[in-house]
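Hey team,

Filing this mostly as a record. A colleague (T.K.) asked me to run one chain through the structure pipeline before their review meeting, and I want the input and output archived in the tracker in case anyone asks later how it was produced. No errors, nothing strange. Just documentation.

Input sequence:
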Amino acid sequence: MILIISLAAFVSTFLGGIFALKFKDKLHLILGFSAGAIIGVALFDLLPEAIELGGGVYEVSSITSLVALGFIIYMLIDRLVILHLHHEDEPLHHKDRGRFGAGSLSFHSFLDGVAIGLAFQVSVAVGAVVAIAVLVHDFSDGINTVNMVVKNGASRKEALRWLLLDACAPVLGVLSTYFFTLSSTSLGVILALFCGFFLYIGASDLLPESHHRHPAVWTTVSTIIGMAVLFVAIQFAGI
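Output structure:
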């Protein structure tokens, strides 16, 4: 069963990325949707999971502080490292930023797989709930990964390579749990940090970029739809 879920995660992520590549002429709408989706994942999925998993040891205020720390860490890396790499070569600079963002999303996908594997170690029922929660946003993960590199000047070939890595990441995450165990508290801390990462990517990168490309009402609407879709899907998965 767990291998079937891993395959489903791969397919869902890959299809999301292909969708983003096929309709790149509507990139402003896809970026708007992606911004809403990634913020939705952070607020409706990662944050509640982090609070639930880490709540046995940490106060809610401590978890939210870790979210803020994640936001600050990503901002510092983005501002102090990526933005100053190859300053004299603007296209290369943008590609580095896109690769960093796609790499972060791929690592998150790896952690999704880890979460699935560890949940199944607890019980089949818990594993199934976590797996559904992961699958419902894997499609947008694929979209977000492709958008991160495409909007920063990467070629279609490079975008496909990153998409393949992101699609394989949850499978590798699931397989890795056969070799180690991780406490729920530690997983909660990691998810809180990634919540901060995703809030930064969505609010400070994808959202402004979508509006800059096409400052239209539908761009804003697509962002709201992205958040709403993830909210409904995650709520449905939690039933």
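Quick notes for T.K.: The first helix runs from residue 2 to 22. Confidence is low (pLDDT under 50) at residues 88-92.
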